[in-house]
């Protein structure tokens, strides 16, 4: 594996996993699929031979939890770029590319969100070899996931012809933004459309060239913020005024959908964006009746439930297809088929001015997910 | 209304309403149907003109919560008899009758459990006039509730002929212990069977006479315990050794089912023994979608649910017929049609040695049902 610089975007808010995920401690900072947080799993998937130390881009409000979790995962040499405000993925990755280009414009970057899950890490690493080859040939490379359902929560990528010299990598015929239900059915039925995983591989030079063409105002603002940065032993702080002046835009929209250099690798990764509690039920290890249980819970005549308790003893009797999530200050019970409607509850709580919509009750040890009562 | 001495039996454990009701603070001590506890409601239903100060019989472990709740309800002159151990209802009411008989053997007692609900208090008081008349004529009078379903959780009373002189009171043809489902259907279909409400009216003399005939060992043991009692300004303490020697037996079994003097008043009281969370849903005030909500909860697309939270904010999305009960250290979600299976969970927790089966987490203020976090 050639040397690859992981760029991990850690800015998501993840209200679809409320009440665990809130602005004060978002989805990527919680252990959801393993005993490690999603951020830690994401960092460790890009650690070892062939990988340079990672660059992590996060909101400055989250700098301590990021630094602590990364260190706890055994990563001593991460660089942490702090965004004074969130501006979506294009400015975040532009900052990482500009910093990298100061040392080596031809360095290859692997951008990925901190809050996704990948089961087939070995296969992912194999695909990365092809991705690096294509990136060095000037492509902006993404990974396309074979759809298993007509999801409306993902963008889709229409597969084009293979590259002439790297045949496991394809041209992108078209990006399709999150479709409606009917369109999603057509896309899946076509057999030519893949889910957009949100991971990209490119050289710093390619990305900056493409930004200069397709999103020059983004590049200019971020360049100013990087130039005026302040660096200390722990963090790289982008200039607040310059960064705040940057448009908020995703890399998909700013570059991928506009460039002629987009490429895609069809990849079977066991990938999930963990976009709802139902997704965590799908990913979880099930008992003989299809229940996924995390924490201190007791089930009787329950089927296909997802039960997670971070504090209280939780008992479930005679229920099917229920998601039950117990945190210190909020309990949520939702039908597994309606897990996306969690957002409705969060919106209502925000409108009512309830703190539970945004913040967790402070605990003695911020890194500890257990209730202090249970210790 | 002639003077009637309420005798309130407060010894129940009520595990069917776990996790709220536990040994350390049982069902009768919680506000369930109103802002007052069931004990307080029970005391207040027998307060005012025509009622003497109540006698309350409870386990000595509960003496402070009983005394505090009774005083909070505005009852200054209750007599509280402490049982060193639980011995079911016959010994408890025998103690009250013996104490009363010391002053007036012909006093009329109204025995009732502390943990039932009665909606039609005015009608109840009218029926009590007939009950007192029949009690003075030597009858052991109970109240029979018109069945609305083939319940297997209640005893049944077969209606006999009316008394010759008090025609709204009937002889009891037969007591039927808790039936199986098929028998319950037959009993309800017969039109001659009423639910046994567990309330009784009798004179102290009648009860003691009947005990002497049908349960002499109970009477002897309780008489010894009452004779050797210690009385202080707050409590009447039965002698532990004598009382422990008493057989454990219900008044139904010790007297009512054996005596020829049993009588019953068919009564439409809006009565419930609140034998499960489903019963509380039945009794509760419902929103337009049939949900009963107690405490800090937010519902979205929920129907016919019972949601009670004593601490955490509780959110329910897209569920029907679910009972969700949130206490400080336990969360329970159960299908409303399977609310009786709560007992199974409690048994499993007992077998596992879990404290949540028996005791509540101590709080700063024992009388406060709210979590200290929410204040």
3D architecture notes:
The structure is a homodimer of 375-residue chains. The first copy, chain A, is an alpha/beta fold and 375 residues long. Helices cover 29% and strands 26% of the residues of chain A. Chain A has eleven helices and 17 strands. Chain A has helices spanning 38-44, 63-72, 89-103, 121-136, 181-190, 204-214, 216-227, 240-244, 251-256, 277-283, 342-351, and strands spanning 5-9, 55-59, 79-83, 108-113, 117-118, 140-145, 156-162, 170-176, 193-203, 230-231, 236-237, 262-267, 271-272, 292-300, 306-317, 322-326, 330-335. In chain A, the strands form three sheets. In chain A, strands 6-9-7-8-12 form a five-stranded mixed β-barrel. The first copy, chain A, has a four-stranded mixed beta sheet with strand order 14-15-16-17. A two-stranded antiparallel ribbon of chain A has the order 5-13. In chain A, α3 crosses α6 (204-214) and α3 (89-103) packs across α7. The longest helix of chain A has 16 residues, at 121-136. The radius of gyration of chain A is 21 Å and the shape is globular. The interface between A and B is large, with 37 and 37 residues. β15 of chain A pairs parallel with β17 of chain B, so a sheet runs across the interface.
Short description:
Two copies of one chain form a homodimer. The first copy, chain A, is 29% helix and 26% strand.
What key attributes describe this structure?
375 residues; 4-stranded mixed beta sheet; 11 helices; disordered C terminus
């Amino acid at each position: 594996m050639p040397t690859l610089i992981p760029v991990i975007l850690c800015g998501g808010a993840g209200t679809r996993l409320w009440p665990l995920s809130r602005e004060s401690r978002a989805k990527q900072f919680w252990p959801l699929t393993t005993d490690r947080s999603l951020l830690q799993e994401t960092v460790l998937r890009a650690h070892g031979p062939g990988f340079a130390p990672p660059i992590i881009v996060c909101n400055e409000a989250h700098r301590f939890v990021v630094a602590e979790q990364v260190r706890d995962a055994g990563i001593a040499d991460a660089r942490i770029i702090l965004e004074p405000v969130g501006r979506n993925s294009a400015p975040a990755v532009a900052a990482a590319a500009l910093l990298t280009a100061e040392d080596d414009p031809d360095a290859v970057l692997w951008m990925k969100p901190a809050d996704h899950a990948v089961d087939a890490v070995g296969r992912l690493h194999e695909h990365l070899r092809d991705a690096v080859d294509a990136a060095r040939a000037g492509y902006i490379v993404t990974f396309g996931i074979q759809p298993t359902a007509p999801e409306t929560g993902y963008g889709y990528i229409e597969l084009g012809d293979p590259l002439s010299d790297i045949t496991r990598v394809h041209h992108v015929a078209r990006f399709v933004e999150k479709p409606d239900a009917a369109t999603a059915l057509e896309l899946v039925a076509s057999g030519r459309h893949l889910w957009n995983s949100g991971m990209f591989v490119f050289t710093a030079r390619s990305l900056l060239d493409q930004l200069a063409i397709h999103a020059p105002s983004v590049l200019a603002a971020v360049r100013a913020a990087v130039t005026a940065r302040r660096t200390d032993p722990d963090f790289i702080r982008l200039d607040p005024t310059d960064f705040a002046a940057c448009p908020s835009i995703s890399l998909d929209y700013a570059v991928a959908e506009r460039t002629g250099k987009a490429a895609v690798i069809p990849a079977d990764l066991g990938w999930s964006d963990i976009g709802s509690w139902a997704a965590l039920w799908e990913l979880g290890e099930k008992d003989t009746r299809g229940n996924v249980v995390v924490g201190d819970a007791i089930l009787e005549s329950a089927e296909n439930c997802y039960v997670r308790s971070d504090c209280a003893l939780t008992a479930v009797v005679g229920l099917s297809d229920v998601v039950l999530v117990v945190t210190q200050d909020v309990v949520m019970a939702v039908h597994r088929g309606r897990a996306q409607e969690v957002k409705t509850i969060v919106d209502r709580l925000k409108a009512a001015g309830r703190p539970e919509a945004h913040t967790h009750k402070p605990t003695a040890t911020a890194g500890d997910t257990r209730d202090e009562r249970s210790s």
